[in-house]
Specification:
It is a single chain. Helix content is 78%, strand content 0%. By secondary structure, it is mainly alpha-helical. The longest helix has 28 residues.
Amino acid sequence: MSGGYFNYSQFTVQQEIIERLQELISKNEDGYNSDILNKFRECLINFEDGCTLLHHIDYLVSGDIGEDRFWEKLDDRDSYIKSREELDNYKKIDKAMELL
């Protein structure tokens, strides 16, 4: 499988945005409160999820997978999202950072 419908540009954009969001969150140079930082984290998680969906679309429209496999990948993704606890973990880390 290789994809390529988007000329692989989604990976460059994805990596740059993820890195910049993570930097905003970790450095917090503007002193945003924890509610704002949690929204940044929520955005990061949703963006990563959207990138995963785009990756599956790329494979589908490039002919690397068929519609059945596409739906299987989305079912797997949906199951993962439901069990994922990153947002709660980020909140716990933020609370711990406030205590330091």
